[in-house]
Specification:
Elements (H helix, E strand, L loop, with lengths): L3 H9 L14 E5 L26 H13 L4 E5 L9 H10 L3 E6 L9 H7 L3 E5 L5 H7 L4 H14 L4 E7 L7 H10 L4 E6 L5 H4 L7 H20 L5 E5 L3 H13 L4 H11 L8 E4 L4 E3 L10 E2 L5 H6 L4 H7 L7 H5 L3 H4 L4 H8 L21
Parallel strand pairs: 1-2, 1-8, 2-3, 3-4, 4-5, 5-6, 6-7
Antiparallel strand pairs: 8-9, 9-10
Helix pairs in contact: 1-9, 9-10, 10-11
The protein binds S-adenosylmethionine and iron/sulfur cluster (SF4).
Length: about 375
């Protein structure tokens, strides 16, 4: 995850670089339930409104939670399917909060209602992300349920009314790239604090529909707009958060943007980005699916590292006998193709290995989603 606004702030108000702190354990994205009331075109969990047998029971979830705490996992992102369809979502959330985790909820927003908003507010989630994949019909087509945009936006408003920190999550594809400017306006009009732009990753229906991935030029235009918007708003005193996911090349593209605009700050930003270090799958990001299978990140559902019903997460995560985990944890990673020759490998860390593997069957091949030109991966600074 590339925290654009953090680096944008560094352009305007540089701060001294301190030694990097290595997190003790990864952020865990936890798909508690696979059932969902929507069937989005790009969904990596291939969710639907049906029961998926064999899911972790609430008691099993609590046992895993204790192990995660002992292992020093700092953050739980409760996801699905639609996590608000889990019958015990509030008990699970309360327990996680009481244990001192930073707890975020990843929701499609349609199940946030007048009936449950007080309970949601009382949980005191640190953050709720609601997916908006376009305006009105674009969103409804993408998420394949008519009226889902209005319901999701109602969910956002209910959160805003309760002063809950809520953000928009948008997955960019050919289907909805045209709505990106309008979504930024919606963010502004509604005073929403955070925007997360996710690039398409090739898992589940996202892999089946990968022909709809945004063309490189669309992605570049979207990133340019995001950079300019983030910068303009920050300068105007509106310190909103902009984050991107599933394309660590964004950081390199930003470095080129920053170098053109603020040549005197280029080396500072470069040093900051190198300290961040790019893709963190299998290292600082982990995934547990609804059945208890552990994956290097959420898009590796076709690749199991082990199951928490049989072995504690802490053991599975530290076991590097698995070749994918060994390579992901290696520094530098054993990258091939264009990624191996890229001058900015220590910023991007080889980007998204799932896309490489889904298109070539080779974990370490170049990421076909890298939209940087040949000139942009050569030394410039
Ligand atoms: C799987 S959903 C679960 C939470 C909730 N149902 C929702 O839609 O927000 C979590 C997030 O992953 C995003 N997502 C799903 N499939 C994706 C893919 N193939 N590539 C990138 N993001 C994806 C969704 O848009 C959503 O923002
Ligand atoms: S992306 Fe979210 S809302 Fe859409 S089908 Fe998947 S789990 Fe459901």
């Amino acid at each position: 995850m590339f925290r654009l606004s953090q680096y944008m702030r560094e352009l305007l108000h540089p701060t001294p670089i301190k030694p990097a702190r290595k997190p003790a354990a990864p952020v865990v994205i936890w798909n508690l339930i696979r059932r969902c009331n929507l069937t989005c075109k790009h969904c990596y969990t291939t969710s639907a409104d049906i029961d998926f047998p064999g899911e972790l029971t609430t008691q099993e979830i609590y046992t895993v939670m204790d192990d995660l705490k002992a292992f020093k996992v700092p953050v739980l992102i409760l996801s699905g399917g639609e996590p608000l369809l889990h019958p015990d979502i509030f008990s699970i959330s309360r327990r996680a909060k009481a244990m001192g985790f930073y707890v975020a909820l990843s929701s499609n927003g349609t199940k946030i209602s007048r009936d449950n908003i007080d309970e949601i507010a009382a949980i005191n989630y640190q953050y709720i992300g609601v997916s908006l994949d376009g305006i009105k019909d674009t969103h409804d087509r993408f998420r394949r349920v008519k009226g889902s945009f209005d319901e999701a936006l109602r969910g956002v408003h209910l959160c805003l009314d309760k002063d809950i920190k809520v953000g928009i999550r948008f997955t960019l594809t050919q289907d909805n790239a045209g709505d990106f400017p309008a979504l930024l306006r919606l963010m502004d009009d509604n005073n929403i604090d955070k925007f997360y732009l996710s690039h398409l990753n090739y898992g589940g229906r996202g892999n089946k529909n990968r022909k709809d991935d945004a063309h490189f030029e669309m992605t570049r235009q979207a990133m340019d707009l995001m950079f300019e918007t983030c910068y303009d708003w920050l300068k105007a005193g509106q310190d909103r958060e902009f984050v991107t996911g599933n394309n660590d090349a964004d950081a390199v593209y930003f470095l080129h943007w920053a170098t053109r605009k603020f040549p005197d700050k280029a080396s500072h930003i470069k040093a900051r980005l190198e300290q961040w270090g790019g893709n963190a799958s299998g290292v600082n990001v982990a995934n547990i699916d609804n059945l208890g299978n552990v994956h290097p990140d959420t898009f590796w559902w076709h690749y199991d590292l082990g199951n928490v019903k049989k072995r504690p997460f802490s053991e599975i995560w530290t076991d590097t006998s698995d070749p994918l985990m060994a390579g992901l944890k290696q520094n530098p990673r054993p990258l091939q193709g264009r990624c191996a020759t890229c001058h900015y490998q220590n910023i991007c860390n080889g980007n998204t290995r799932v896309r490489a593997e889904q298109t070539t069957k080779n974990f370490w091949a170049e990421d076909p989603g890298c939209y940087l030109t040949c000139a942009e991966i050569e030394p410039a600074l």
